[in-house]
Specification:
Elements: E1 2-6, H1 15-25, E2 29-33, H2 45-58, E3 62-67, H3 80-90, E4 94-96, H4 109-130, E5 133-137, H5 148-155, E6 163-168, H6 169-174, H7 179-185, E7 190-195, E8 199-205, E9 208-214, H8 225-234, E10 240-243, H9 254-265
Parallel strand pairs: 1-2, 1-10, 2-3, 3-4, 4-5, 5-6, 6-7, 7-10
Antiparallel strand pairs: 8-9
Length: 272
């Protein structure tokens, strides 16, 4: 397992600065956001992704995955082939897609499943062509595949070498799915784990109950981290663990990121 950091919170940092921070944080590499206005963007990916990977790897940091931009859903999007070619050239083998949304008022769920699976057929072909596994993230609230039970509907029957499950500890808590149960539901496909905590609180709503979710620093929420890492060890998981650092914080985020990565480092030795 490699402990990597999602670069979303470090949008303004250059690649050399990311390399310096990586050493400071004690991480194994980066989950590199390839998005507009980031150092590596969809517009410049051909030139900048190979160079970014070279700089980071020369600093002892890996780039096992890329998180794509918010329109990266369908395999015929014009940004797809340039990105996959650059990933193949850079030896980056995992890609996170954007989300397929579900509107309970207007969408027929089974038709939506069929629609997404038709898209996955195209992604599977591109995966075989470029040697990049395409992964879908369990993101709560109005998204297809919001937990592993739903994601299994999308992935069933596809080649696990081509399509992968990206399980998120926070969003599984939000959707009421135990981490080990989620792993069991999509075990052949488990490829990436997102590490972030979640805290659910009851709030009075119209004389009854509602739920408020906050994202605290790791250890301050409801995720059983010992159980998460025991489960991953049990299945022999060797993929990347992406630290997201999506908690709300005022001021400089760097010390908070350092605390978050240090929290998870104790579960997994550097370089394992």
């Amino acid at each position: 397992m490699k402990l990597i950091l999602f670069s979303k919170r470090l949008k303004e940092k250059t690649v050399p600065e990311l390399a310096e921070l990586g050493a400071e944080f004690g991480i194994d590499g980066y989950d590199l956001a390839v998005r507009p206005e980031f150092p590596v963007s969809p517009d410049n990916v051909k030139e900048t992704l190979p160079e970014a990977c070279r700089v980071l790897r020369e600093s002892g940091l890996d780039v096992p995955m890329v998180t794509g931009h918010f329109e990266l859903r369908w395999p015929d999007h014009p940004s797809v082939e340039p990105l996959l070619r650059a990933m193949d050239e850079s030896d980056v083998r995992l890609l996170k897609l954007a989300y397929y949304q579900f509107d309970w008022k207007t969408d027929d769920y089974q038709k939506k499943v069929d629609e997404v699976r038709a898209g996955f057929e195209g992604w599977q072909e591109l995966s075989r062509k470029h040697g990049v596994k395409i992964c879908y993230h369990t993101h709560s609230n109005r998204n297809m595949g919001l937990n592993a039970g739903s994601l299994a509907h999308l992935l069933s029957g596809f080649d696990p070498a081509c399509l992968g499950a990206y399980l998120d500890t926070c969003h599984l808590i939000t959707e009421g799915e135990k981490f080990s149960t989620a792993v069991g539901m999509v075990r052949p496909y488990v490829s990436i784990i997102s590490l972030k905590d979640a805290l659910l609180e009851r709030v009075p709503t119209n004389g009854h109950g509602g739920v408020k979710r906050t994202l605290p620093e790791a250890g301050g929420g409801m995720v059983n981290w010992t159980g998460v890492f025991e489960c991953l060890e049990e299945i022999g998981f060797d993929g990347p663990l992406s630290v997201h650092c999506e908690f709300d914080i005022e001021g400089d985020v760097i010390p908070a990121i350092a605390r978050e990565t240090a929290f998870f480092r104790k579960f997994i030795p550097k370089g394992e």
